[in-house]
Each structure stands twice: as C-alpha cells, then as structure tokens.
Amino acid sequence: MIDPRSPRFGAGITAVLLAVVIVLGLSAPPAGDVASRILNPPYLLLGAISALFLWGTTAGVARHPYGLLFRTLVRPRLGPPRELEDPRPPTFAQGVGFVVTAAGLVLGALGVPFAVSVAAALAFVAALLNSAFGYCIGCQLYLVLLRLRPSGARA
Amino acid sequence: MTVLTALLALAALAALTAVTVLVGVLWRRRQGTAVAVSPASAPTAIDPALFGASADRFGSRATLVQFSTAFCSGCPATRRVLGELSARTEGVEHLEVDVGERADLVRRFAILQTPTTLILDRHGVVRTRIGGVVRRSVVEERLEALR
C-alpha cells in the first residue's frame, strides 16, 4: 500500500515537464531528417518522460524515482495520510501515460507534424487532473476497455 | 524561434491549462452527488443473484450496491462510509461488487467510473445513483427517503 499523495506529487512533476515539451515543441517544430527530428530538445525530453512512465508501470510506482523523492523529501514534512491506496491504479495509469507518449515519439520520428506536442498535451491534461484534482483518467479508461470486452471473458 | 511563436506556444499552454482546470473543478463538484432514478425508467427489481449474492444480502429497507474495481483509488473510502452506515442503520445492507470481471454489469448499469453506488429500495428497485466517492450526508439523506 502507498501514500496516495505520492503519485499525485509525481504527476505534478510530470505535468511541469510536459508543459515544457508542449511549449518547446510548438515554438520550434523540427525540420529535416529523422536524426534532426529526434535530436530536438522537446523530443528528447518527451523520450525521458516516456521512459519514466515505462519504469513506473513495470517496476511499480513505489520504486519510481518520484516515489523515492516523495518519501525522502516530501513525506517527512507532511502529516500521515488519511488512508493508504492500492498501488495498482497509479501503476496502470503510468502504463496509459507510456502508451500515449510512446505513440507521440513514434509518430514524431516519422515526421508527423506536432505529434510530440499533441501527445505531450494529452498526457499533460491527464497529469494535471491527477495531481491537482485526484482525477485518474487512466482508471476510467480501464472501465471503457471493460465495456468493449465480450461478456463472460476474464481479465 | 521567434518571440511571437514562443508567445503563441505559451498562450496555447495557458488555454490548455485553463480548460483542464475547468474540467477538474466540474468533475470534483459532481463527485458523490446523488441522482434520483425514477421508478418509471427502471422499474424492475434486481435479483440478488445478479451480484452473486444470496437473497438475505439485500436489506429489508435499502441496499447499498457499490461497484468497484482493483484500479480504483476512491473505493476504500466509499467502502468505509457505506460499511459504517449499513452497520449502524437497521435494515440497510452494503454489497460491494467487483466489476473487473463482470463486463455485463458494466454495460447493463453503464458504469463509467468506480466507485459507482446504487441505492436499492426494499423491493430491489434502483432509486438512486451516486458516481464517485460517496458523501455520508448525501447517502443518509437518500436512505431517510426510503423509510
């Protein structure tokens, strides 16, 4: 079980980084060949964010760097949480974040215009809603997927 | 990068942030509010077997059916509130259903978020629907109407 404020703290950092990607991506759209598209600051930053999402969803949010940062720097300054949370919802949400940002990276490398900024914008909305309001879009997506699954099929 | 494009990019970010905050505020305001289900729109009594429960799991006055999933951060808080209410209110039962393996229930009750709570009357007819983490006062008020 984890402190529910930990993923929200991490989502806040992610939202700030994604905001940087959006602004840089919109103000300096890449031109030229694949290498120059990839070796572009917003592309590289989104790549780093995407790698952190992958880390969070495979190693679990408890072992995520932001989780460690929260435990060592933030948690000692706060009171105890009202209740603990199952780490599976935020871990699932990290997976959704990875899929969205990875799609932006692939399309961006292929030269689709503004792919990096649009992917960053989608992830930014989710991260901001999560950190500021505790609203987990990824968790809602899970139910939508469930609706599409035929009856009787098991998870 | 010209100053103009940088300013436009910042304006786009500001607009995106504003819309997101608006969505968040509206979402939070709606969380835990009760929506009355008119008996005319869903008059059928629900069989406890639909939730894999025996008949005595339904309350003689009301039943609080809580739909949950493993991927649900608000479910434990809702479980605590509904559990306490049912424990101290005569004739009120709390039934939690994990819909993670019940796609049929997700479709039938159009569940878009967990927790979603249904308040059934003594006949097993849905009377109230609450999306999100429940508020104790809201549930108490709806139970009062089912005396």
TrEMBL record, chain A:
<keyword id="KW-0812">Transmembrane</keyword>
<dbReference type="InterPro" id="IPR025508">
    <property type="entry name" value="DUF4395"/>
</dbReference>
<feature type="transmembrane region" description="Helical">
    <location>
        <begin position="92"/>
        <end position="112"/>
    </location>
</feature>
<keyword id="KW-1133">Transmembrane helix</keyword>
<feature type="domain" description="DUF4395">
    <location>
        <begin position="2"/>
        <end position="147"/>
    </location>
</feature>
<protein>
    <submittedName>
        <fullName>DUF4395 domain-containing protein</fullName>
    </submittedName>
</protein>
<keyword id="KW-0472">Membrane</keyword>
<feature type="transmembrane region" description="Helical">
    <location>
        <begin position="118"/>
        <end position="145"/>
    </location>
</feature>
<dbReference type="Pfam" id="PF14340">
    <property type="entry name" value="DUF4395"/>
</dbReference>
<feature type="transmembrane region" description="Helical">
    <location>
        <begin position="43"/>
        <end position="62"/>
    </location>
</feature>
Automatic annotation (TrEMBL), chain B:
<protein>
    <submittedName>
        <fullName>Thioredoxin family protein</fullName>
    </submittedName>
</protein>
<dbReference type="Pfam" id="PF00085">
    <property type="entry name" value="Thioredoxin"/>
</dbReference>
<dbReference type="InterPro" id="IPR013766">
    <property type="entry name" value="Thioredoxin_domain"/>
</dbReference>
<feature type="domain" description="Thioredoxin">
    <location>
        <begin position="36"/>
        <end position="147"/>
    </location>
</feature>
<dbReference type="InterPro" id="IPR036249">
    <property type="entry name" value="Thioredoxin-like_sf"/>
</dbReference>
